[in-house]
Predict the structure.
Amino acid sequence: MASWQNEGEVILKEEAEIEVRMLGEFSLSYKGTVISGKGARTSRTVSLLAYLICHRERIVPVSELIRIKGTGKDNSAPVAALRTMLCRVRHMISPIEEQVGRALVITKDSRYGWNPECAVSLDTDRFEAMYRGLVSGTEGTDGIDCTQMLDLYRGDFLQNLADEQWTEPLTAYYREIYISAVQQSMPWLMGKGLVREAIRYCQNGIAMSPYCEVLYRWQMKACLACGEGENAIEVYERLRLMLYEDLGVTPGEETQSLYHEIVSRVRGGSLTIDQIREQLQEHGYAGGAMMCDYTTFQLFYQVEARAALRRGDAVHIGVFSLSSRSKEPLTPRALHKAMEQMRTQICTSLRTGDIVACCSPSQYIIMLVQANYENSQTVCERVERRFYCEYPRSPARVKSTLFSLSPTFMEKQ
């Protein structure tokens, strides 16, 4: 028994096991009585209670609570404001306290804490314990119901308190565990034939970690196992487009190899002329230059370089590079936004026969077909001018570089 009980505290009616949910919506439940964070007067009340539960192994000093939780803007009496919040916490949890027969939040020497005599069962603890058991193999994969483990993750850690500084590292921590748990569970799910569940869990993981190619590969495999090969191909195309637009890269070799294998299995038979035409046809054409990934741009360049000697047309290559106008480098968010704005200006300023690709996270490359050096320079200057005109407050600076396409000479055998 703990020695720092509150005065006037009633005797525990029976051993308490209070269920606490922190993944997703915060709640406490005991013998059918459920207290939801939605019923709290303010989010600060929920945040304070959750903080005390997370640090239930100790009594928390008032100074720490004021520093971590705050008491409102420009509050001249932070201790009094903290006491007010604690009164709201106690009012919030009073229905469970009546059933348990003890005060859940206790006070000692002007410090506050969760009563150690009131046992709690946290979904975060259960989730982490099941994950550790799966990874370590102490229980064996067959002894763990992966769906039960993954379903414990109903959302981010205290998702309604995502803007609180103290929850941020825990949110990232449990997200990382969940993404890893999804990957570790895939062989079990596929082996049990739970392919629909596998697709759902992969989609949840991808929403949290959109650049995790492993999850895309498992989703492709699960779609194929469902007999939905075309959906598996669409998953790859979404990944390819996202990587190209956001990072200027292509999927890894393992992902590409799986994609080609699926295409071979799904579209392995001979194609009719109509099918070939349909696959070659450009869909969603809205005018302007043609956007493609950098690998495709390289192929276009090599084709033009081969034909340059025979055709004699002028082809020029332009590169637009973005940097910061100030001494501080662009933040990832500002760079991404500026790249989106730059892409719009490039596509609308160029002709339909010109080709554009993202060749790095901060650069676009363009191919101007049948354009001499002076005209190509005018095009680049027009793109820069339109960018500054449309986005005068953008923190990005645009610099263009122009060079001529080098013809490919056939090697003598």
